[in-house]
Request: fold
Amino acid sequence: AGPAVAVVIGQPADDVPGLLASTRAALELAARAPEDAADTVRRVADRPLAQLVAALGDDRRLQEHGERMLAPLIRHDRERRGDLLDVLAALVAHPGNRSAAATASHLSRSVFYQRLAVIADLLAVDLDDGEVLAALHIALLARPRGARERS
Reply:
């Protein structure tokens, strides 16, 4: 078997500027795809939040938002070789279904819930608040791929 690949499909385009915009959006989504997205097909239209973050990716304010929101988790994971960022990523990938998020994290539900309690305490947030989850999701998406792999 060859190397695993992720296929990203951009928006339909009627002209060259539209094609360039579609290609740029697809490339940005592909660059921010998680490691486990290999051997999948992703459509830009199906990932509106990732598309928004990719479009704003060069905006320093977006990067600062991500760094500010996730700093306690990054520090915790680095100091303790933890997995809180991965747990948070599973939570935002499976909103409203913590059992599926626990399964995606390869953790028992009880351990997953313990990790969520640590995340909530470290960030001083309510993980049941949709706006908080959206902000954390944006922060995770805004992290440069290299930073995601190092933490």
